[in-house]
Design brief:
This protein is an all-alpha fold. It folds into two domains: about 1-35 and about 340-355, no CATH class; about 55-315, ABC transporter involved in vitamin B12 uptake, BtuC. It is built from 16 helices and two strands. Strands 1-2 form a two-stranded antiparallel ribbon. Strand 1 (about 185) and strand 2 form a beta hairpin. The chain is globular. The mean pLDDT is about 90.
């Protein structure tokens, strides 16, 4: 029974990818493009050394963003505010990192801790609103995204920007000194593999241990599955909501740190956006499991990178967005189908076991 359940759960994302390929092929045929050629080009380009490095770099922030979302999901909290949390955290962390000169390990740690604190505090607002005023975290985190983006633009333009020069009129924070930057794991002429990959691995391992191997994680999962039962067993649901939102925001604050400490070295209005919303999709595809999230992040990174070759071959690269959207929709449907199949099998098995141990009518009458 357990092996069959695992097999069904493994087939869900695989079937979603296959269905995405089929529907994308139909879309390509509709515009008179050969889907086999498109997929072959994407596969060949995505397998190149520089592309593999780029895919890993793209996957790192998506993975961290998805873990932040997954922490909330495990308690039935929908943190849609990762976008605003990491954006505000990146600005403040960049300013703090540029303002000090410290030994490398201390400098990097200060920047990361600053980002986590900012993300946690911003996310904590939604937690407090939920437990004190009953405001849905979905609504509050969406609104906080807009507030964060507006606050970032105001702070950057008026207080945290560096002096403009004739050769560089970009509005951005001062550069972070070399002691605050992450070294590259692999150096390449096209793009270096960021050392922040190690941080992503640590975040994934910590997420697994915390959620599945600690009492706090048990309380978190129990509160998500059945809040009333968790409360009856002594878990304070209000406290768990705030703690979960703080933890989710702290991880969200790390989402933009790879770009900040490995490539940009300062914050500007050109800083990457959309990582928070894509992280929601990655968490859904990965079913909030650290390994599944990693596979989802790599898949999205591969699609984004490999789609770049399509433009050079007169194939619209926007096909990448079609594939992403279809994968998200189909994987959610596939997991729901699997859930219902598993529930039906477990109910049938329980009924059979009950029938097997039930006494015969003759024995009862005797």
């Amino acid at each position: 029974m357990k092996s069959r359940r695992v097999l069904l759960q493994a087939l869900a994302p695989l079937s979603a990818v296959v269905l995405a390929l089929v529907i994308t092929s139909i879309a390509l045929l509709a515009i008179r493009k050969n889907p086999v050629t498109a997929f072959r080009l994407m596969g060949q380009y995505g397998a190149q050394r520089d592309s593999v490095i780029s895919i890993l770099n793209r996957a790192v922030p998506l993975y961290i963003s998805a873990v932040a979302v997954a922490i909330g999901f495990k308690m039935n909290l929908f943190n849609i505010g990762v976008e605003g949390q990491y954006t505000l955290a990146a600005l403040i962390a960049a300013s703090v990192g540029a303002a000090v000169h410290l030994p490398a390990p201390i400098h990097i740690t200060l920047i990361l801790v600053t980002a986590m604190i900012v993300g946690a505090l911003w996310s904590g607002i939604a937690g407090v609103l939920k437990v004190t005023r009953g405001v849905s975290e979905v609504i509050s985190t969406i609104m906080l995204n807009y507030i964060a983006i507006g606050a970032v633009a105001y702070l950057l333009s008026n207080y945290l920007t560096r002096p403009l020069t004739a050769s560089d009129l970009t509005t951005r924070t001062p550069d972070i000194p070399a002691s605050g930057l992450f070294p590259a794991l692999i150096k390449s002429p096209a793009e270096n593999l960021s050392g922040f990959l190690i941080v992503a691995v640590i975040v994934g391992a910590a997420y697994y241990v915390l959620v599945w191997k600690t009492r706090f994680g048990f309380n978190l999962r129990a509160s998500g599955l059945n809040p009333d039962a968790a409360q009856a067993s002594g878990v304070d649901p209000r406290s768990m909501v705030i703690k979960t939102m703080l933890l989710s925001g702290a991880v969200a604050g790390l989402t933009g740190m790879m770009y900040l400490l490995s490539f940009f070295h300062s914050y500007s209005l050109d800083f990457p956006t959309g990582l928070g919303f894509t992280g929601i999709a990655v968490a859904l595809v990965g079913r909030n499991n650290p390994v599944g999230i990693a596979i989802g992040a790599l898949l999205f990174g591969f699609l984004e990178r490999s789609a770049q070759i399509l433009d050079l071959n007169n194939i619209p690269k926007e096909i990448f967005y079609i594939m992403e959207g279809i994968i998200i929709l189909t994987v959610v449907v596939a997991y729901e189908v699997v859930r219902r199949l598993v529930e039906a099998q477990e109910t049938k098995a329980a009924a059979e076991r009950a029938k097997a141990i039930a006494p015969e009518p003759e024995a009862v009458s005797a």
